[in-house]
Amino acid sequence: MAAHKIRWYVKAQLGVLLLPAGLCLFGEAVIRKGIGTWASLLAASDSGVVLPQAGPWFWYGTLGLILITAGVGLMIESGLLRGYPRAPLG
Predict the structure, then answer these.
(1) Is residue 70 in a domain?
(2) For FRET with 37, which of 1, 3, 10, 23 sits at 20 to 30 Å CA-CA?
């Protein structure tokens, strides 16, 4: 029975940690995409301002969405909405 409770706890905590990590990565992707768009607009206007490349924003966003989905899935699967697992009846 103790293994069941430990498994529940690990799933719940992993879900709680993966969700905000995914949100942070997704936000980083949005910021990098915005910087890339802004840099291309500045380069097109010949203003002389040189900005570094924004980086692989697509992969940051993809990984962020995967982590968000995994976090929500683990929280739901762990029964976090029902609370701590009780001892089985009978």
Answers:
(1) yes
(2) 23
d(CA 40, CA 67): 29
The reported pTM is 0.74
Q: Counting every residue, how long is the chain?
A: 90
What is the span of the domain harbouring residue 32?
15-44+54-80
Question: What are 33-83's pLDDT values in tens digits?
Answer: 888 888 777 776 665 665 555 578 899 999 999 999 999 999 888 875 566
Q: How many domains does the chain have?
A: 1
Residue 6 lies in a domain: no
